[in-house]
Amino acid sequence: MARLIDPTAESHHGALAEAVRQHAAPVILLRHIDRAHPDLFPILRTVFDNGTLTTGDGGRIDFRRAVIVMTLDTPPTGGVAPIGYPSPAQKLRPADLPGIPADLAERTDGVIRFVPASLPAMRRIVRNRFTPLAARAAAQGIRLALSDRACDHLARRVLHRPETLRRLLVDTVEEPLAALLVGGRLAAGEQVRIATRGSRIILQRIRSGRTKHTRRNRPERH
């Protein structure tokens, strides 16, 4: 906790205080606030009540233009809309945020409850993430296509952990594709189709109407 507000070798005022000082209107993301060390809550109370924070070296950091976003693993309860800020009729109560102290919950301005993404939505996210990858391949003369089955497979893999999609694409597409290029097994003008075989993602080279399986990937990381 001391590293947030006390001077260190890397930061004159502490990591958090220095970041706020350097930006006119900072957005501060505190993930998994319900897992935070209890010593963090008095700091947040001071910021919420006073709009400023006194650092370990006696400096004062202005938080009045800062937006603080906190995420919880503990689902909110009570009269909170599935997504969006609550209406006046849905006034946030301390009991709605069981993962943080009640007095801190009372100091918040609003709550957004995120529902799990649906499978169709996750398929769209997979294709959106795949688009820049295909564009980078095209810049090297490689046409990259994602089959519907492969898209569905990737979407199901990350449905409940969407933050792992980037790593999954690296493991199943980017690294195998790079290995083919470096190994001279893939040349400009060729097309590669991302498909499935059983429970794995595979890369298929397509030449003159013929399909050749080039590599079976190792199992995806969990």
Automatic annotation (TrEMBL):
Organism superkingdom: Bacteria
GO terms for MF: ATP binding; ATP hydrolysis activity
GO biological process, alphabetically ordered: cellular response to heat
GO cellular component terms listed in the entry, alphabetical order: cytoplasm
Membrane-traversing stretches: none
Stored SUPFAM superfamilies: P-loop containing nucleoside triphosphate hydrolases
Cited Pfam families: AAA_2, ClpB_D2-small
Protein name: AAA family ATPase
All residue ranges annotated as the Clp ATPase C-terminal domain in the record: 118-203
Species in which this protein is naturally found: Candidatus Tidjanibacter faecipullorum
Gene3D superfamilies tied to this protein: 1.10.8.60, P-loop containing nucleotide triphosphate hydrolases
Annotated keywords: ATP-binding, Nucleotide-binding
